[in-house]
Amino acid sequence: MRSPVVGLRASSILFALVCFGHLIRLWAGWEIRVGPVGIGPIGSIITVVVTALLSVWLWSLSKASGAR
What we know:
- By secondary structure, the protein is mainly α.
- It has one domain (3-66).
- The chain contains two helices and two strands, in the order αββα.
- A two-stranded antiparallel ribbon has the order 1-2.
- Helix 1 (3-28) packs antiparallel against helix 2.
- The radius of gyration is 15 Å and the shape is elongated.
């Protein structure tokens, strides 16, 4: 059954897109505001690191699952 592999790869791609979105935000200098609170670039830096790690991890899990 290949649906777990497809799910892992889809999740990996989604995390990669979020990562690239935050990289673009950092490069362009866009500000994120949630109500009156502004989220500085450190929030995006943390998000880039976490989502990149999750994306790579899920992709490697999908390769391991597909090898069975």
